[in-house]
Amino acid sequence: MKLVILAGGLGTRISEESSLKPKPMIEIGGKPILWHIMKYYSCFGINEFVICCGYKSYVIKEYFANYHLHQSNFCVNTIDGTTEIYDQGNEDWKVNLIDTGKHTMTGGRLKRISQFVGDTFCMTYGDGLSNIDISKLIEFHEKSGLEATVSAVKPPGRFGALEIENGKAKRFLEKPQGDGSYINGGFFVLNKSVLDKIKDDSTVFEKDPLRSLAEEGQLATYIHDGFWQPMDTLREKNILEKLFTENNAEWKIW
Question: Under CATH, which architecture does the 2-154+180-245 domain have?
Answer without folding.
Answer: Alpha-Beta Complex (3.90)
